[in-house]
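Reopening this ticket.

The earlier resolution said the output was attached, but the attachment link was broken on my side. Pasting everything inline this time so it's all in one place.
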Amino acid sequence: MAKKINQSGFSDWKPSQLPDLSAKTYVITGSNSGIGFEAARLLGERSAKIIMACRSINKGEKARDKLKETCTGDVDLVQIDLSDLSSVRKGADEIRARANSIDGLVNNAGIMMTPQEKTVDGFDLQMGANHLGHFLLTGLLLDKVEAANGRIVVLSSIAHKGGALDLDDFMSDRKYSPTRAYTQSKLANLMFAFELDRRLQAAGSKAICIACHPGYTDTNLQSTGPTGFLKVFWSTMNKLAAQGLEAGATPTVLAAAGKEAKRGAYYGPGRFGDTRGSISDANVSGHALDQDKQKRLWEKSETLVGFEWGI
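Inline output:
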């Protein structure tokens, strides 16, 4: 059963409530398109410095040029392929060299409902790109976020409600379906966010973690991942039911920079099955709140990526 886990005190947050973000730095994965691009635009137009972390340099450069047309803060670009841990480490080193501190690390990039495929590290592609790459990147940049008393933002999805995380078949080897693998990865995102904030708080860290979801938003996520029937289905549904990019990016910028956002919270639209509508505290499925499984997910993720956080 889904429920709200916070009472943040607002019911319809808008990007117009963003403060001036001069001298603030935000790293946004997957910011060459979709929600990541729109979040970069909204933050950049408030004078934030944006570091785009993108898999494709060519697409990233085109998006950077577009952002510079309206953003009043600097826009920088780093190449990171989240499905390749060596690329994550290299990209993290480049970000560290360019930023003394990070006010917001926005874990936005993702893929959706792809056919079964493995990453170069042997992970299921969706789990590797959506969760494990971000898990490692966040660990490698945590001290930079702490230096700014900053925020880590983790994007999940209403798809997290679809089923419990199977840690015994974490890579969906025994039972693969594009939808199941996607659901598992987005549930892992949310459980990681909750476990991370709890650990940061227990360690007395100056950083906090906030999760969010975009509702049902019209992006290329639905067209570049699914194939066959799923591709046709999502293409049709996007035309009929999806909301626009600014609405979809609003929970992300709230979590990244909104003064009203609370640590450990989960934000998103709350109407029509949480697919759209006013932005406030979002519904969390009961299985995402299993603290024992959150802890085991953390430990498994550390082992798989070869990185111990120390918190």
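Reporter confirms the inline version is readable. Residues 160 and 187 are 4 Å apart (CA to CA). The first strand starts at residue 3 and ends at 4.
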